[in-house]
Amino acid sequence: MSQQNLRPNTTFESAACFKGYRFIAGVDEAGRGPLAGPVVACACILPENLSSIGIADSKQLSEKERLEVYKVLLSTPGVHYGVAVVDSILIDQINILQATFEAMIRAVAVLSVRPDYLLVDGNLLPKIDIPKESVIGGDALVLSIAAASIIAKVTRDALMIGYHARFPEYGFDRHKGYGTRAHLEAIEKWGPSPIHRMSFAPLKNRAD
């Protein structure tokens, strides 16, 4: 069965519990690839025996489905989450990988409950002094990471819709800063906005 057909579950959280850990946070980000806007990270601790509320990899859900699950997560007792935003200026200064790690570090730091174990999506780990493991494709496999992916994605999409109100010529409400043809055409016509990532191609190749 492919990852796309799997539903995330608590296998990784249960394994960490078996080792003696109690507060296990899934950590994920949204917005590593876009040409504009921030990268957003979320750390999320789920209560034990959480009933099925439609949690899945955020990329496998429609915008409406993500928003519905997001609302349920935020209103469910025992769900703890921290969200952090790193803007395009810092992304350009320290590169997107380090900016993603910084967002993850900040997200863990603002959790109302300090986690004692982290499950981090991807194959690399931020420098946090908490026991942790990376899970490749974790947003499709690990329930707490999938929940974090939804919260991060909905948060970032809302920020990009807000930027659309300031810079409507770029269409941020539609593509959320990703490099679509319409977005590239808008950059060519209007030049980069204050939230564009000037360290990303093709923006870094522009004379202006």
List the helices and strands and how they pair.
Blueprint: H1 11-18, E1 24-30, E2 39-45, H2 63-75, E3 80-86, H3 88-94, H4 96-109, E4 117-121, E5 132-135, H5 138-141, H6 143-166, H7 172-175, H8 181-190
Parallel strand pairs: 1-4, 4-5
Antiparallel strand pairs: 1-2, 2-3
Helix pairs in contact: 2-6, 3-4
Brief sketch in words of this structure:
With 208 residues, this protein is α/β, with parallel strands linked by helices.
Task: Describe, in plain words, how this protein is organized in 3D.
- With 208 residues, the chain is of the alpha/beta class.
- The chain has a single domain, classed as Nucleotidyltransferase, domain 5 (2-Layer Sandwich).
- It is 40% helix and 14% strand.
- A 5-stranded mixed β-sheet has the order 3-2-1-4-5, sandwiched between helices.
- Helix 2 packs across helix 6.
* Number of separate structural domains: 1
Mean pLDDT score, rounded? 94
CATH class: Alpha Beta
CATH architecture: 2-Layer Sandwich
Oligomer: single chain
The arrangement of helices and strands along the chain is: HEEHEHHEEHHHH
Figure out the total of helices. Answer: 8
Which geometry do the CA atoms define?
Answer: globular
